[in-house]
Structures are given as structure tokens and as C-alpha cells.
Amino acid sequence: MDTNMIIGIVAVVAVVVVALIAWGVVKSRSAKQSAAAEEARQAQQAAEAKAAAERAAAAKAQAAKTESKQAEEAGAKPAASPSVKKPEPEPAAESAASATPAEPVEAVESAPEQPIAAEPSAPAKPAEPAVAEQPAPAPAPAPSAPAKPKAEKPESALSRIQRLKAKLANSSNPFGKALFNILAKDNLTEADWEDVEDTLLLADVGAEASEQLVDDLRKDARITGKADPAEVRASLREKLLDLVGRDTDRRLNVNKPGAHKPSVIIMVGVNGTGKTTTAGKLARLFVADGKQVVMGAADTFRAAAADQLETWGAKVNVPVVRSDKDGADPASVAFEASAKAKEANADVLIIDTAGRLQNKANLMDELGKIRRVTEKNLPVDEVLLVLDATTGQNGMTQAKVFAEAIGITGVVLSKIDGSAKGGIVISVQKELGVPVKLVGLGEGPDDLAPFDPEGFVDGILA
Questions:
Q1: Phi and psi torsions of 325, nearest 5°
Q2: Ligand-binding site membership of 352 (annotated)
Q3: Phi, psi of 218 (to 5 degrees)
Q4: Which of 56, 91, 310, 459 is the most buried (most CB within 10 A)?
Q5: Residue-averaged pLDDT of the chain
């Protein structure tokens, strides 16, 4: 085989290879163009089917709207009408869907290898407007707020005074009975008069007041001569009323004409006298009189004081202003409470204070600051000193310290029931120069009453 033949064979092979490659390229391009044309036809059919579905949905919505309007004009409720769900619009949707894609069907006949006439997703679209036309479900009722506990109705002041008389009459230590038993004797001896004075001292009447009462009784002919029990009782009653103060003005300043509104009352006293409890009971007394009350928990040194005051206030719907943390500045609580009472236009603001201060200087500084800060918002009308009636003369020293520190306007005697000696009423007024305005009768929520001198004396002589 010579060189020319080899070259000829190689040339033929090369031509065949080139031809095959060219044929493959042409065929590949043709296949791609066919696929692209097919995808375009499918996309066009899908778009036309979607448009048909939308037109069918619009026709169905229009038909439902027309029927609803006709039902309204006829006086029916369209929300309850079943015509919205009638199946009549469905054939219209189907005919519209079958009429519109006529051109795509011809294209399908020309390309049988890719049948697309039965597009599965197109007929399902018209169902959406039917769901939209259904009446909206009624909104779920909002959860009702928890009902507030019903406020208690406190006892009236008049009813409390009647109970005061009854409690004092049943007291285990009514010094009036002991005095009456001595004075009812005929021709009293010197020993009898000494017994009278001892009885008064044991009852915490005080030395000066006891001496004055004995002198007045000695001069009374109804007692020194032949003793008539009725006359002895009448004489003793008059003398005791003179000591207690029958004509003393014992009204709280909030109840006097021209009182400020809100009227501010600051409660002071050592811990353990029932100060916070008395503040809560005083709020109930004002609520019983129809007054709007706000309380301020300025005793921030005792952890349970604010909680205790809130418990009292919750029972009669009285708001309590307190600090979020123990040991906060009491003056800031008093300031906030006075601002809130002023904003609410309340009748009374009661501020509870701490009594656990270690010395007189701290006491005067703290109470003075509370009063000054409060008076930036409201004038202070009343400062009530709470004393435990069972402590007797032992509480007088503490009472004098508070009187000097802040200047008290009245006294509240707590626990003046069976265990109290009673004479403290006389001595505390004589020592402090201010009247006893309220007395605590016991542990009940309404066991706080305005002090009634005649009821008090009649109770201890009963």
C-alpha cells in the first residue's frame, strides 16, 4: 500500500467523522428547539387555563353577590341563605374552561407524544370563591375578667358606740364598780378613802388626777353622809365625766367644717400598739360614712406592714400606695400617696408610719421629713397617736416622745376592752393635752369607734 492510498483513506475517515459530528450537533440543536417549543406550549396552555379559572370564579362570585342582594331586598338574611353554595355556577365554569383552551387542543393533536388537553390543576381553582362566600365564623367571646370580690359593708359609728358600752360593762377590770362599792358605804373612814385612791391608781388614772377626784368626792355631801346608792352613783358619774372631759371636741378634723380635701391623717406610735391595724380599721370607719379613702404604707422598716395594710384596704376597695421593696424611704412613699390622693380627689389620706426608730433624734428626723414632704402636695390635718390601753402608765413616756417629735392632735386607744384598766383615758389626756378621739374595742374589723365620754363612764359604772 503506497503513501497516496493511506492519505486517501485517512481523508475519507476524517470526512466521515466530521460529518457525524456535524449531524450530531444539528440533531442536538433540533431536539433543544423542540423541547423549548413544547415547554412554551405547555406554559401557554397553563396560563390560558388559569385565566379561564379566574373568569369562572369571577362569574360565580358575581352570581352569588346578585343572589345575596336579591335576598336582602326580599327581607331574608344573606348570611344564612344556602344559595351561595348552589351547584349551578359549576357547569358555567366547566364550559368556560372547555371553550377557552380550544387552540391548545389543536396544538396537542399536532404533537400527540405530549398530551396536555387534560390539565389536572385547572378545574380545581373555581372552588376557592365558594369557600370565600361562606359566612365568617362568629368571633370567639373574649375571656371575661375575673369578678372583683364584693366589698364589705363596715358597721356604722353609732352601732359601734353601743357595743363600746356593752364591752366596758362586761369588762373584767371596770374600776368604776370597785369605786362604787367603796363609796356606797355609810360614813366612810380614812381607810375607805385610801382604798378609793388606790383603786384609781391601779386603774392608771394617774396620781394627779386621782388626788383631784378624791378631793372632789370628799366635798360631796351625797357621799360623806348617809350613802344612798343612787346618789353615790350620780355623784361618781359626774366627777368621772368632769375628769374625762364631757365637753371636749373629739371630732376628727376631716369631719369639721372647712376641712381640707383630701384631709391627711398621719398615724404614729411604737410597733406593737396596733398602729397598722388601727389605720386599716379607721379606713373602714370612713368608708362606712361614705368617704373615699386612700392609704399610704410608709412603714417600710417592717416587712409585713405594707402587706397588712393592703389586706385591710382590699376588703373595702381602698387603694394602698406602697414601695416595691422593703427599707425604702418612707417619705417618698408618703409623697407618692399624697400625690395619688390629690389626683383622685379623695376625701381622706391615711399614712401609716414606722415606730421602730432607735432614739428620739431619729424619730423626730424621720417623722418631720414625712410631714414636710407630704405637705408639698397636701396640708396635714391630723396626727393620731396610737396607744395600747393595756400598757397603762408604761406607754406614757413613749407617748410624750411622739408628741414632741411631730405634734399630735389626738389619741387612739387600742385594746380598750376586757383587759384594759380604763383610767388611761383620763391620764393620757391630762399628760398630753390632747383628746382621746377613737378607741379600739377588740380584734374585730369594726372594733374601732369614736370615743363617747358618757358611754365610756356609763360602761365602767354598769
A1: -135, 150
A2: yes
A3: -65, -30
A4: 56
A5: 76
